[in-house]
Amino acid sequence: MNGARAVLETLTGGGVDVCFTNPGTSEMHFVAALDEVPQMRGVLCLFEGGATGAADGYARMADRPAATLLHLGPGLGNGLANLHNARRAGTPVVNIVGDHATHHKVFDAPLESDIEAAAGTVSRWVRRCVSVRDAGQDTANTIAAAGSTAQATGGVATLILPADVCWSRGACAAPVTPGQTTAVDENVLEEAARLLNREGKHTVVLIGGDLMRRPGLEAASRIAAATGARILAENTPARQERGAGIPLVERLAYLGEKATAQLTGVRHLVLAGARSPVSFFAYPNKPSNLVPTGCAVLDLGGVPMALEELAHLVAPGVRPVTISAQRPGLPNGALTAQKAAAVIGALMPEAAIVSDEAVTSGWWLPQATVGCPPHDWLTLTGGAIGQGIPLATGAAIACPNRPVISLQADGSAMYTLQALWTQARESLNVTTVIFSNASYAILGMELGRVGTRPSTDGRARALLGLPGLDFVSLAEGLGVPASRAITADDLAKQLSRALTEPGPCLIEAVVPSQSSFLD
Amino acid sequence: MNGARAVLETLTGGGVDVCFTNPGTSEMHFVAALDEVPQMRGVLCLFEGGATGAADGYARMADRPAATLLHLGPGLGNGLANLHNARRAGTPVVNIVGDHATHHKVFDAPLESDIEAAAGTVSRWVRRCVSVRDAGQDTANTIAAAGSTAQATGGVATLILPADVCWSRGACAAPVTPGQTTAVDENVLEEAARLLNREGKHTVVLIGGDLMRRPGLEAASRIAAATGARILAENTPARQERGAGIPLVERLAYLGEKATAQLTGVRHLVLAGARSPVSFFAYPNKPSNLVPTGCAVLDLGGVPMALEELAHLVAPGVRPVTISAQRPGLPNGALTAQKAAAVIGALMPEAAIVSDEAVTSGWWLPQATVGCPPHDWLTLTGGAIGQGIPLATGAAIACPNRPVISLQADGSAMYTLQALWTQARESLNVTTVIFSNASYAILGMELGRVGTRPSTDGRARALLGLPGLDFVSLAEGLGVPASRAITADDLAKQLSRALTEPGPCLIEAVVPSQSSFLD
Asked: What average pLDDT does chain B have?
């Protein structure tokens, strides 16, 4: 068989059976081989950021990687921002980048560029396949290198696949040897147990990664109940299980000042799947490191069992504290971001998957949805906006029987809006709510926070405005039915309908800019 | 003054007074400083590919660089594809990438990534500013490194600008020392003259770069007239002057087979601003190197004066052969890509700037516009689709008094469509024609050319279809008035109106897919 078929058979044999693709000429043998390997589902994206973000969303929900298929260095470039987010999420991605035929590279044709260098910025593993005989094994090794979210060891593994490897014969598929699972360090566990028993009231357990799923959250809750420790979660979990019957955990704040307040007086910080807290950005005369002075840090690692074993040591027989079912009432009147959050909390269906890139307009969402039926919440992990719509797309492909709610700021929506077309083409059950405030509101806030004092009507402020976007037109242009909500009542009616109808839908929720976000 | 102001004053002092920006928190001091340096025009782009492509288009037409302002590694990633095109065009770009404050980098905050590595893939120069005292000088050196298209020495020069450099005080602006201009190698010139005098009839002069402007074209035409040499142009010139009164030059074909036919029997190839011809992609059992066997290659370099000096040697007193004014007639009936080309040729106004990313639908455009009033033609230089709309945007800012015509394929339009919003926001005089054939037609063609035989109704072919895009809705959603043309008459009416009205406008020209492109 040719190399393309061996790659596809190795992928599907290794459990990778969805490929988010934006191919070009050098990928045509790979595309043609889809006719021969029907186990692989090819999903076309109109822009590579849609493909890489969808691969991230897919794996966060499926607990196994998807593949991408990108077109040489520029295609990889277009996908880089969402691969960055996937890297920060610890998501396994089998990132396949097509390249010129090996013998063609020396001619420096127009699309030639240094793929390895760009891929290295987001990948834990980069392999160029140099011979058709290696196509299967290189693919298998790439899948193994990507790992799995369920082991908290996922990452972006990039396979550079030259065209001649795809078209040459003499390839064979290879089996995937799973990577080693990381064990919990028993000594660290015992140290943590002693610490919690002795200093629980002065300790924060900061959890993240796979420990944001129900077993980790229940273990954390038991530890808190037994030792008096406080549980906090990382600011941007890749996937958090939430809702009625699940322990609630407060997230560390995005704003350094608020995070500092959350950690004031803490003497011990135990990290469980989370990284030591740092400020998202630097600000003049403010600390980057958010660990309080004199606070000791102990890292348990991100192994899913770590917290359960720790709970077994310090909280035997103790029950987790879970949140009870509750929903906000439906508000009335002109829509605001706060009222929109209430509407979403009032109507969120069972088993929803939320892709949250609502930025400043999302401030009230966590509280408004706290007691909704159990759901998964996916956040922007790497700060590279343009994640949300692709992420929702991939999550919907991973979980076709669950409703996906994509909560988007208008500014961030405009990076990868093309992913709506894939939602239409694949008839995905995604409801997108655009919080449309006609501005980069977070930059309006940050302009003050970094210490500048631009005039209110000057050229600087004018650069942060987004007048004239019409998301109803944009969505319809991409094949997604859309409507506009001006009042809370509009939003409630439109959201109710969207959640009961199959296929994608978009609601432009017109809200005022939240410049008082900090209050 | 602070570093941000010193950077801006150095830019404007060095002739760089337009900045295409998509900023984030780490760039807020730069944005705030725009209030203090009114000579700098900040142009907001909703996506970084729009900013980098606009910077390319601006410099191709202004003959001096624009600056970009991008947000850390992911922002650079989003802008990478059009920086790749700028690199291949030889366009000077002062590419400014904001970064975390220097002291913040060690904390590996969520947006941290290896900016140098990604920038290196598209830049001829990468400099990180490490101290506020260097801010002015580093900026001046970056401008000098970017060079200028007028010297055929342009390139992407990247300045990585940490937030603390921008906000700290103690900076001063610096003057720009222009780089050395490259001189023509007189020995090579004399060798070329001897060759042309002796073997002119067996010689092709392949021109490109700045030699595609009127002086270079006239010199080439004189050389051809005097020596019997044939003139060909590179396949994708950054900017070609064309039209009535200007020598016409045939471009080397995109398809290797056709290019091979163009070069059959040639014994000598003289390169003047063009690179030695290679196939755009590799294909099984087809050559990558398009230089005929036994053909000798002599490279004159890309100095604009090279051809004029050569003409002085071999064609003293000889006049260039120019094309006479001519236009196609207006066609009737259902629209096709060929008829659309005729409509454009019939109506193209004086001094138009054409951004050509029409891909397969553009096949008939060069011939249909050959005798139009003098105009500039900008092509896709690096093969990374998504160039055209941003390029048109930048060209319109460079030449506010010239009409810009942006000719776009539907597939490639969907990479950077957001740039239409900037056209609306800045009231730019750009008329976009989308050749809407609901497919990646070029890939349908390439699928056959690479030797695959996918079934006509299989999954592979289905991956190359683009059903359901509505460019009228999309344009209106971005604030650009739009209409749809089904007949040639529709297009003629709509284009006539668009070319007389100020501000941007988009026409979706519905055409059949050109699968018979090769015939």
From this structure: 95
Distance CA(A240)–CA(A252), nearest Å, equals 13
Instruction: Say how far apart CA A115 and CA A94 lie, in whole Å.
Output: 15
B442/A25 CB distance under 8 A: yes
Q: Give CA separation, A87 vs A56, A147, A176, B124, in Å.
A: 9, 12, 22, 28
How remote is the C-alpha of B214 from its chain's centroid?
Answer: 18
Calculate mean pLDDT across residues B147-167. Answer: 87
Average pLDDT of the residues in B39-56 = 98
ipTM over 0.95 threshold: yes
**Cβ of residue A73 closer than 8 Å to a chain B Cβ:** yes
Give the Cβ contact number of residue B424 at 10 Å: 21
Q: Return the ∠ at Cα B348 (arms to B343 and B352), rounded to 5°.
A: 145
Which residues from chain B sit within 8 angstroms of residue A463, using beta carbons? 21, 23, 31, 34, 42, 44
The nearest alpha carbon in chain B to A40 belongs to B459
CB A88 within 8 A of CB A387: no
CA pair distance A72, A78, nearest whole angstrom: 10
List the single residue in B42, B117, B279 with the smallest CB-CB distance to A120.
B117
How far is residue A404's CA from residue A378's CA, in Å, rounded to a whole number? 11
Residue in A32, A120, A449 nearest the CB of B452: A32
**Residue A454: left if φ>0, alpha if ψ -120 to 50, beta else—which one?**
beta
Q: Find the helix packing angle between B72-89 and A72-89, rounded to 10°.
A: 180
Instruction: Assign 3-state DSSP to chain B and report helix, strand, coil percentages, each to 5.
Output: 40, 20, 40
Residue B208 in tokens: 């490109």
pLDDT in tens, A351-409: 999 999 999 899 999 999 999 999 999 999 999 999 999 999 999 999 999 999 999 99
Local structure of residue B439 (DSSP, 8 states): B
Residue pointed to by tokens 């020495």: B153
Per-residue pLDDT of B254-277, as tens digits, reads 999 999 999 999 999 999 999 999
Verify whether the Cβ–Cβ distance B478 to A474 is below 8 Å.
Answer: yes
Count of beta carbons in the 10 Å neighbourhood of residue B132 = 22
CA atoms within 13 A on the CB side of A236: 28
Confidence label for B517 from pLDDT (cuts 50, 70 and 90): very low
CA distance B300 to B184: 8
Cβ–Cβ under 8 Å, residues A438 and A469: yes
Residue A17, helix vs strand vs coil: coil
pTM of the model: 0.97
Query: What count of other Cβ atoms lies within 10 Å of the Cβ of residue A178?
Result: 12
> First and final CA of chain A: distance in angstroms?
63
**Residues 379-408, chain A: which have Cβ within 8 Å of B?**
381-384, 386
The pLDDT tens digits for A133-172 are 999 999 999 999 999 755 557 999 999 999 999 999 999 9
User: Which residues make beta-bridge pairs with A228?
Assistant: none
Angle at which helices B214-227 and B186-199 cross, to 10°: 40
Q: Which long-range contacts (CB under 8 A, 24 or more apart) does B38-42 make?
A: B38/A459, B39/B12, B40/B8, B40/B11, B40/B12, B41/B17, B41/B397, B42/A459, B42/A460, B42/A463, B42/B69
Give the containing element (helix H, strand E) for A263.
Answer: helix A256-263
Angle between helices B337-347 and B488-500 (to 10 degrees): 30
For A175, counting Cβ atoms within 10 Å of its Cβ (0-12 exposed, 13-18 middle, 19+ buried), the class is exposed
Among A355, A332, A361, smallest CA distance to A466 is for A361
Q: How far is CA A305 from the centre of its chain?
A: 22
Judged by DSSP in three states, B326 sits in coil
